[in-house]
Amino acid sequence: MAAATALRANPDRNFRYWLLTPAIFLLLLVGLFPLFYSLAVSFMRIDMMDTDTSFAGLYNYGNLFKDKRLWEALGHTLLITVIALPIELLLGLAMAYLFLEKMPGRQIFVSLLVLPTIISPIVAGATWRLLFDNRFGPINQILGWFAGHPVTALWTINPRLVYPAIIFCEIWQWTPFMFLILLAALSNVDRSQTEAAAIDGAGFSRTFLRIVLPAIWPVMAIAILIRGLDLVRIFDIIWALTSGGPGTMTETISVYTYAQGFKQFETSYTAAIAFLVIVILTVVVTWAIRRMGLAK
Amino acid sequence: MSPLPFHRRKTVRLTLRYILACLLVIIFVFPVYWLFSISFKTPDEIFAFPPVWYPKSIQFSNYMVLFKDGDAKTVLNSLILATASTFIAMILGTIAAYSLVRFKTGGENLAVWIISQRMMPPVAIVFPVFLLYVFFGWVDTFFGLILLYTAFNLPYVIWMMRGYIEDIPLELEESALVDGCSRWAVLWKVVMPMARSGLFATAVFTFVFAWNEFLFALVLTRTEVATYTVQVTHYFGGQSNFWAKIAAMSVLGTIPVFFAVATMQRYLVRGISMGAVKG
């Protein structure tokens, strides 16, 4: 493009760097600095009792492998992610199909359905904590109507119910997110192609897999990526609902790292965990961004 | 059974869709309703068994308590932090995005690095940031939190504004330059006005992200700049919760977000999908 070349060949050559400098400086301060700091501290032995800043080698990293609670926390995080993410996706897709065709008042329905997604996750967790209350919450009451006898389930305490409670809250808050994005993606699918397929006698599933899915995939992939990464670092909802309890049963990697750093004051060990998390996620994120075509 | 005539089938279909739509709205909106209703209930109504489905009268004493005890100040803190950090992030992010788009500074790699900062788990950096803040004495200061939220939101602003600036035709800038405008003048007088709606939509999202943030606020605030999200969690108890306060504080913190999002419905999808859906 001639115009672009002219713009780029302007005399004040440093202008473009001046524009970027403050932003990059802040990102380095809050993004890259902690990375190196974590790395340095993770090779020392600093905890609540001791401030031994001499080089301790891979001592903390060795401990990572022996830390049962850490691997359990990773497992919990993965469990929540692999259950909640597909449900949010499929439910969101079904809802998007429901509202795809025009119907009077559709905009009002959509606006109302979006409410859960825009409130603070901490408020979402708090709200469900109130809803799940075994005695004064409405959920046990409603379940009681169907069961025909009073239900007194301890949703946030009973080990068998606590995961369903968390996942329910998570799905409630983020299905509308999937729904909105997928509704927009579906609306952009070329109508004439799906209609032609229907005339040719292709059923719904065939049309969906051959025409609709390839068309919405770029957008769907990004929605999955955004939600997947949010789920992997899930903290707020857990904090409000269970704080990782009962015991350490619902501790996710974020909750566990927090506990190590700010309750046990295991400075060096927390740095090692943080660094492990950063390395795992950097690999996953970089791969995912490139793979899913977020980078143009 | 003979198949229904076409227009009847259509009516049945539409009715079914309405029934399903209403059911979904009830399921998704009920928790929000419950939160609001508790905030207006008297203690007797909150702790009634079986639960009372709606407050008998709208009374504001639950809110009055928050204002009297000074807890409502945390909403003001959230407002200051979110507004200031949004403002700064928008300025720094937009000029950075302009550099990325017009001059291809750093190429695709820099853009990917910037957005990957957004994907980092906060918990991985919150601890070293905390130590840094203790060292500089920035814990529980507006400056510290605004700095952090600005940096936290920058990748999003840069990424979104990159998309909006790409949509601006280059010819306008060209002719402004030919007319003798300086670089900065082009940026302020041509690019910014042209990207107005994008700026606004991005600012609303940035505001909401900062407003909803919890983990950094939990770690980096004590009393002076505690945000409303942190305040809500203070009402949780081991045995009993301060239900009325949880609900009233949550509502206070939710209403501004509802208004913010209502102002930019049109850009909602583009905003939450990080620009993947242009609309």
Give an overview in words:
The complex is a heterodimer of chains A (296) and B (279). Chain A is mainly α and 296 residues long. Chain A has a two-stranded antiparallel ribbon with strand order 1-2. In chain A, helix 3 crosses helix 13 and helix 4 packs antiparallel against helix 10. In chain B, 74% of the residues lie in helices and 0% in strands. Chain B has 14 helices and no strands. The relative contact order of chain B is 0.13. Chains A and B meet through helix 1, helix 2, helix 5, helix 6 and helix 8 of A and helix 1, helix 4, helix 5, helix 6 and helix 7 of B.
Structure in a nutshell:
Chain A is mostly helical and 296 residues long. Chain A is 72% helix and 1% strand.
Corresponding CATH architecture of the largest domain in chain B = Orthogonal Bundle
Number of domains of chain A: 1
Kindly provide the radius of gyration of chain A, computed on alpha-carbon positions and rounded to a whole number of angstroms.
24 Å
Query: What overall form of chain B do the CA principal axes indicate?
Result: flat
The CA-CA distance between the termini of chain A, in Å, is 18 Å
**CATH C-level class of the largest domain in chain B:** Mainly Alpha
What proportion strand of chain B? under 5%
Shape of chain A: globular
Q: CATH fold name of the largest domain in chain B, please?
A: MetI-like fold
Please summarize the sheet with the most strands of chain B. none
Largest protein interface, residues of each chain: A-B, 103 and 99 residues
Strand order of the largest sheet of chain A: 1-2
Number of strands of chain B: 0
Number of helices of chain B: 14
Contiguous runs where pLDDT drops below 50 for at least 5 residues of chain B: none
Low-confidence stretches of chain A: none
Structural class of chain A: mainly alpha
